[in-house]
Amino acid sequence: LTYVHVKTPECVLNATSMYMRTARLLDEGDFAGFVSLCTDDISYIVTTRGADRAESPLSLINDNHDRLRGRAQSISRYWHSEKPPTQTRHFISNIDACEQADGAISASAYLMLTASRNAKQSIFTGYYKDRLVIREGTLLLRERRVVLDMDVMVDGKVTFIF
Amino acid sequence: MLTNVPKKSFGDVPIAELVQPGRVHRRIYTDAAIYDLEQEAIWRRSWLLVGHISELKKPGDFLTRAMGRQPIILCRDKDDILHVFLNSCRHRGAKLCREKLGNAPRLNCIYHAWSFDFTGKLRSVPEPEGYGPEFRLEDFSLFEARVDTYQGLVFATLDPNPMPLPEFLGNSKEYLDMALSSDMEVFGSQEYQFDGNWKFHMENTLDGLHGSYLHLLFARSGMLTAGHSIDLGNGHGLLEWKTSKAKGDLGKTMGLDATEASPEKNRVMILFPNMALITINDLINLRILSPISVGRSSITALALGKPGDDPELRQRRGLQLSATQGPAGSAGADDIEIYEVNQEGCEATAPGIEWLELSRGLDRQIEKGGLIVGDLNDETAIRGCYVQWREMMRVPS
């Protein structure tokens, strides 16, 4: 299978639109809304730079649709560590994207996420590698891989969606 | 013999007396002087888990961790022998090895290029004549800890006269044998820190009650059923319980839908003071705990698998760590929250509230086969940790 990678203003615009949309939903606390932008076979992985380089099968987060839905419910309803809730801000830049022969979009971007709760503010930096697909006429997230620059979670728990 | 012994009493009360049957004093979590004494009386004298044998496959492999607050290098020499050294150059004290892990022919200090081999011997220094005629390389070997292994676990101690490792492990060996084998391998790790005293991790890991209250998703799933809290002696403790199938699709959302490989019983174990072993469903999770300061600690979580694991099972072992026990997991995130709110809350103290209750099940626990056994929801295993804490903190004047 040979993919043809074509970078067009339209696919960069579509990828940018998806990044902005998901960031807004997550920062506004609409986690179910974020999940609704994911395909049923979503792969949502968050890993660290060291684990990524070592091609480790263990990541910080490794969610399919069921587990991502559970994560969204935990943040909204179950986690005491989200009461009071963390206010996140997703700052996304350096967006790049190209279209593949099957119509899917491969996208990448830099991420800086601030997470503020009570007296703590944590900062995470890293990058996204996403794959967007069109299902029933709608552009959805099929893969999101987040590689964090840090190897140690210095502020402990990670109770948000990148 | 203790070196650099900090203060041994709190007011008129010996520090060891801050732990009593059924209660502990808030100060044991918040007082920096008590923490300093713990470093000398517990962390320098205990066998500590430092890694797993599979992390060092080849001669020259090394990794850096900590024993208590002491930085260490764990390595394999050219004769395949494991060593643990304090990670500090004998010249000016600089941290010798700065990488988390790797493979190298020698351990070279970046400051003045003193070079050590993997048996800890100083092999070369530049311009040696500058150190005078009495200078001898053999006087400057790295400080080496004693090392021993059990079922693939690598332990080390800074105590020059420790009890033999099998004696230290005592009753825990039976449960280690059930969970582990020496041919297992580490296939990934997670590292995280939290603002809480190290003992909060020890307690919470052996707290069978909180699962029904702190972990709301687990409680709702109905997966938690009856079991036991067991004081194994030597400060080691165990919870074991049967898990029923989760209600509805909650098992799927937590990544805990059991497979045929899942054991009938789930267990969590603490080996006092720094190791946790969690075997739930397919997950085999080792934790190495290191205190950073009185109110801050670090955890390295290792994911273990068996050599014959098929790729699907191996993946499940990993995702169950990520989805449940890790810092982004359904249980792990709230466990970290509780370490931190315990720490913050224990800063509050006033006459009449200094003592914290640790008596649940004290009047109904029983002795069985040389072990003290309580209900899963009792504090039996935690009290066992504190018997050892109290014993080790009785420092001679």
Structure in a nutshell:
The complex is a heterodimer of chains A (162) and B (397). Chain A has 162 residues and is of the alpha+beta class.
Describe this structure in words.
- The complex is a heterodimer of chains A (162) and B (397).
- With 162 residues, chain A is of the alpha+beta class.
- Chain A has 4 helices and 7 strands, in the order ααβαβαβββββ.
- Chain A has helices at residues 9-27, 31-35, 49-53, 65-78; strands spanning 38-48, 61-63, 87-99, 105-117, 120-135, 138-148, 152-153.
- Chain A has a 6-stranded mixed sheet with strand order 2-1-6-5-4-3.
- The longest helix of chain A is centred in the first third of the chain and has 19 residues, at 9-27.
- By secondary structure, chain B is α+β, with helices and mostly antiparallel strands.
- The longest helix of chain B has 15 residues, at 311-325.
- Chain B is built from 10 helices and 24 strands.
- The model of chain B has no long low-confidence stretch (mean pLDDT 93).
- In chain B, the strands form 5 sheets. Chain B has a 9-stranded antiparallel sheet. A 7-stranded antiparallel sheet of chain B has the order 5-14-13-8-7-6-9, with no helix packed on it.
- Chain B starts with 8 loop residues before the first strand and ends in a 5-residue tail after the last helix.
- Chains A and B meet through strand 2, helix 4 and strand 7 of A and strand 15, helix 6, helix 7, helix 8 and helix 9 of B.
- Strand 7 of chain A pairs parallel with strand 15 (185-194) of chain B, so a sheet runs across the interface.
